[in-house]
Amino acid sequence: MHRIELPRLGTFDAWRDAARKLAGSGVGFDQVSWCFEGTDATLFDGAQPPLPDKATWQITVPKDFPPLAKLLCASRAPGAFDLAYRLLLRVSDAPSLLRNRADKDVGHAESIAKNIRRDMHKMKAFVRFREVTPKGANRRQFISWFEPDHRIEELIAGFFVRRFGDMDWVIVTPEVTTRFEGGALSQEAVRSERLDLTDETEKLWQTYYANIFNPARLKVKAMQSEMPKKYWKNLPEAELIPGLIAKAEAQVAQMQAATPTLPPVRAARVLDRLHHPDLPPRDDSPENLERELRGCASCPLAATATQAVPGEGPMSAALMIVGEQPGDQEDLAGRPFVGPAGQLFDRVAAKVGLDLQDAYVTNAVKHFKFQVRGKRRIHQSPNASEVSHCRWWLDREITQVNPKLIVAMGATAALALTGNAKGILKRRGKIETGLHGVRVLITLHPSALLRQPDPDLQQKQMAHFHEDLATAARMSVQLAEDN
Amino acid sequence: MTLQEKLALLSDAAKYDASCASSGTSKRDSSDGKGLGSTEGSGICHAYAPDGRCISLLKILMTNFCIYDCAYCINRVSSNVQRARFSVEEVVHLTTEFYRRNYIEGLFLSSGIIKSPDDTMADMVRIARELRHTHHFRGYIHLKTIPDAAPELIEEAGMLADRLSMNIELPTDAGIRTYAPEKNPDEIRRAMGNVRLRKEELKAPTYRGRKAPKFAPAGQSTQLIVGADGSNDRTILQSSSRLYSSYKLKRVYYSAFSPIPDSTAKLPLIKPPLVREHRLYQADWLLRFYGFEAEEIAPDQGTGMLDLEVDPKLAWALANRHAFPVDVNRATKDMLLRVPGFGTKSVGRILSARRNGALGYDDLRRIGASVRKAKPFIIARDWRPGSLTDAENLRARFATPAEQLQLF
């Protein structure tokens, strides 16, 4: 039986050194007993063979093992070191062992590790620093007393170093004192008694604690499961808890019983100003159209979309381009044709020489219609009723811009402009006279091209789209010359 | 008024905001000795109040003066509560001194709307700038964003803060018009859309391969009040899933409407529906991590409300028993996620553990699954539920009658 004594600080490193040598010399897990320095040998340790000088062969472990072993070595749970050593012997043969949580050793180790992590987390949360800066010091100084369940002082020190880099601090636990002074960390294993400390700022903190508490939602058990009573004695706010709980019910009853009061005088004045802002008079200007459109709620789409997306372009444009509806990106940005379909449209238009600077671009329906699928919004085509509701806005845009030619992209635009959504593939490339008496050139919608699954068909339709935009480009040049 | 009196007033006014998260932001620390604070991914709750809520941040209002008149709010213009206002220095002092004593992870600054949205937002941004640039504060900052504020202000807020949030409070536009007539739901959605676009813009790599500064690295969130207007759970969950998909929100918080001092006659005070709030949170998790759609969890038939007696996943399984039992050794991840009693962690562990051989009942227990809940719905190496899956009294075995009082 080997008896290995481990130091209180540097425990894990010492364990690792010993474990490497033992495992590398083929010592079985039942041949080792682990204990802390200064503890007496037990009766069962028996004769103690010396620790091998070095390992006979090299032990290799998967990279998830050392962090787990580190946590096990911090535990006060009986048998944690043995378990760590047993696992070491097993993982060197089966590197994927730790991923099998159904294994008894792994399950046991993980449950110990979970306790250590929780203990560390609670220490990060419940350490309370009290200020002890002497006059004239150039760095502020703080001190804290904390009683962790396990031997986590070494594992946790880095957290406080990273967090409180510009001040000096000391954390005293019953077994270890950790100091951070002038930017240097040091730890010392010494026994200490509980420190009794206070700090002026604690009054403010207690004020905050008492007032952030909502007496109408008393849930004492929920509080205690996260902040067990054993921590209370070091928390300045904890002394308020019994009082807060006792008063809660009366406080709520008082709120209930109070009759509604009359609003203060200034309320009416403030609200009147808010409700009657100085708006410019209503007229047919584009700015006014946009403002009214943003307030439109005449169909249910307004409540689910982000915003109404108005058309864009010069009011004197001879060419108007009408798409279906804003997509995901257009809906967020509030501008038409900025998403993938819009980019495709821009590319093709540039290729065939269609100058979009001179065109007014808009959509048949101004709000985005979609269905939620998991984390994405899936486009849905607007129905006839939504198109006809929204035609009111399209009509006003057409009246204002007074274009000579309108390009209708896709069935929805065709429906809005000609009253007929059918047979787009047959009608494309042809000029029709729309409901507004303006010439309408029908073509496909670029997003239909993007969604076309058949590559041959996609190529063919893309060619048609090129052709149609080229027609539009030719016609708009002609229209400009006619003027 | 002393600082202590102001703090009492302005933290009392802030407690109706449920969010207190300090997690999920980019890593920072002050080990260079030149600043204060760190953020390391997971949040820390430094205390718990007797209402069971975590206290992670110094959650205060800059001021509780407000020109809006939202019926559910303690700070509405028509309320007679005492008013106060912090100076920039006071907020900075409280934040850094609390932080140095390890009371908090950072600041959650909200505000009533004074004068105009732009004025209010500018003052809040000034506090954040002071903390970050003058005091080198590297802890967490959550700024409540005023939707109508100028884009430059929101831009700067996003550069200084870890999280931005805008509270919608009521799940339908009609509800907002009734109870918060000065709020504009379109404006809130548009502002959330802008935050999402800005985040995505900065995420794209620059031409020189430099990392762009992060915009609100812990994302954006919102809050919905439960039980103030008549919306049912289905409406609330649909609204949440729309918010998640549209604006990539990190969280939607649900806050049971709870009594406020000096309440209005418009909204009668009720006992806060805490169980309902809890069920909504569970349902929200199912939406985000378990592949459920809002319509599955809160079906159309009936009241559109979640079952208060059993959790929403169990309720779904009980209503869809034809999909069970599921063989834990063969089922896909998607299906395992739908088994009551299996969390995302347990499912991950089942998937990697079953490579080593078929899993039995005890293996599942060791893995950390709640086998008591799962057993009617699963098949394992040494376990078959038999007629248990379709047993008529199955629901009764799980349901503990929950009592939700409507009145005091």
UniProtKB/TrEMBL annotation, chain A:
Residues 310-470 form the Uracil-DNA glycosylase-like domain. One of its GO terms (biological process) is DNA repair. GO terms for molecular function: 4 iron, 4 sulfur cluster binding; deaminated base DNA N-glycosylase activity; metal ion binding. Keywords: 4Fe-4S, DNA damage, DNA repair, Hydrolase, Iron, Iron-sulfur, Metal-binding. Pfam families: DUF4130, UDG. InterPro entries: DNA_repair_put (IPR023875), DUF4130 (IPR025404), UDG_Type-4/5 (IPR051536), Ura-DNA_glyco_family4 (IPR005273), Uracil-DNA_glycosylase-like (IPR005122), Uracil-DNA_glycosylase-like_sf (IPR036895). Coiled coil: none annotated. It comes from the Bacteria. Belongs to the uracil-DNA glycosylase (UDG) superfamily. Type 4 (UDGa) family. This is Type-4 uracil-DNA glycosylase.
